[in-house]
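Z., the sequence and structure:
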Amino acid sequence: MAEERRPHPAPTFVRAAFAVFSKDVRIEASTREIVTTAAFFAVLVVILASVAFVTGPQTTTRVAPGALWLSIVFAAVLALGRTWQREREESAFVGLLVSPVPRAAIWCGKAAGVLVFLFAVEAVVVPLVALLFHVDLPLVAGPLALVMVFGTIGVAATGTLFGAMTVRTRARELLLATVLFPLLSPSLVSSVAATREIFYAAVSGQLVAFGEVRDWLVLLGIFDAVAILGGLAMFGALVED
């Protein structure tokens, strides 16, 4: 008798992660709930920061990076809370856990969905920051895009992991923010510092050299790698009863 062929674990993992990811994207495409709410909140934070401080070169280099990343992190908390709240409704999260797919694939799909939602929010927030704080966006587009991608990956990976831990609690948003913000401190500090260097060069009218932010990108890359590996390794243990 021919031996029964078992499916290779890698394609199964990828299909399961993509199924979770596509489910979240389809739900968001039909409701537009997460992106709309998170983007509105992020825009409000940026506008308040621009109104509270006098505009000028010092404001651009000192206030704009913090306003940008704080708006993104607060928007991420809203997005994470809502995306896991959907799984709690009608015991959908239990259905995911009892399904015959790797637990890490569930985390991977959810993290990819959150990452896409945050990129959608940033597509609105970054041009607004450039407009309100007088940043020449085409001049800094390349380095800023790298910093945004590296920084957002760490936020999405870490937030998805600990968002799953708080999905069954009542004070989800408060607990998630309490746990998440200290863990994101290295990523936030690196992202703000790299963005500050980019904006400083933009105010001076100079092209931004990648070498000026290389060290911060290395730190962000290390944090992202730790966050991704931690999510793949720890998600199953965190969601166990």
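The chain has one domain: 16-238. Residues 16-238 form one domain.

Let me know what you think.
H.
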